Amino acid sequence: MAPAAHGGNRTGRVFTGDASGDFLWAAMHQVGLADRPVSRRRDDGLTLLDARVAAAVRCAPPANKPTIEEREHCAPYLVRELRALTEARVVVALGHYAWDAALRTFGALGAPAPRPKPRFGHAAEATIDRWTLLGSYHPSQQNTFTGVLTRPMLVDVLARAEALARARDRAGPKKLAGEPPP
Questions:
Q1: What's the confidence (pLDDT) of residue 175?
Q2: Which of 96, 97, 106, 152 has the most CB atoms less than 10 A away?
Q3: What is the pLDDT along the chain (182 residues), one digit of tens a residue?
Q4: Which string of DSSP letters, residue by residue, matches the chain?
């Protein structure tokens, strides 16, 4: 997922200050992963609860379509971030691009490549090494305005992620992956 030019690039925090963020934070709040349903500024006090939001690409690329060079340049940051999240067990990929980035990141961290490659789809689920990867359509306005992604659809995926993390907590360490607000 790439931060939006009018949100993440402007505010300095992904999914902050734009319609995509409004959609995501409200859903995360509804399932108990955020302490409030809206975030307008990086210093507005939003707190994520057992969650982190990460980005496969860290800037809004031209035409909102990352180049291979941009993807490759940003990949090490995502690898380092997930490596540091030693208790992370559930990753929600917002969009096909994020799904593929997560699979590459797992591989870079030593996870064996699953065969066949897990296919992205909304509510897709795959277990790769120690992680469960869940897919959701990206909360872009293109998807939310057309009904490709509705709030109940996103809430269902996030609730599944939270339930998986809770179940893993009973069995051992748990956390959800993503980037906390600073």
A1: 47
A2: 106
A3: 344 555 545 555 577 778 888 999 999 999 999 999 988 777 888 888 888 888 888 776 667 678 888 889 889 999 999 999 998 999 999 999 999 999 999 999 999 999 999 999 999 999 999 999 999 999 999 999 999 999 999 999 999 999 999 887 666 544 455 444 44
A4: ----TTTHHHHSSTT-SSHHHHHHHHHHHHTTSBSSS---STTS---BSS-----SS-S--GGG---HHHHHHHHHHHHHHHHH-TT--EEEEESHHHHHHHHHHHHHTTPPPPSSPPPP-TT-EEEETTEEEEEE----HHHHHHTSS-HHHHHHHHHHHHHHHHHHHHHS---B-S----
In whole angstroms, give the CA distance from residue 91 to residue 77: 16
**Domain definitions of the chain by residue range:** 8-171
pTM: 0.84
Q: Look at the domain 8-171 and name its fold.
A: Uracil-DNA Glycosylase, subunit E (3.40.470)
Give the dihedral of Cα atoms 163, 134, 178, 35; nearest 10 deg: -40
> From residue 39, how far is each of 10, 15, 16, 47, 156 by CA, in Å?
13, 8, 5, 10, 21
Token pair listed for 33? 């992963």
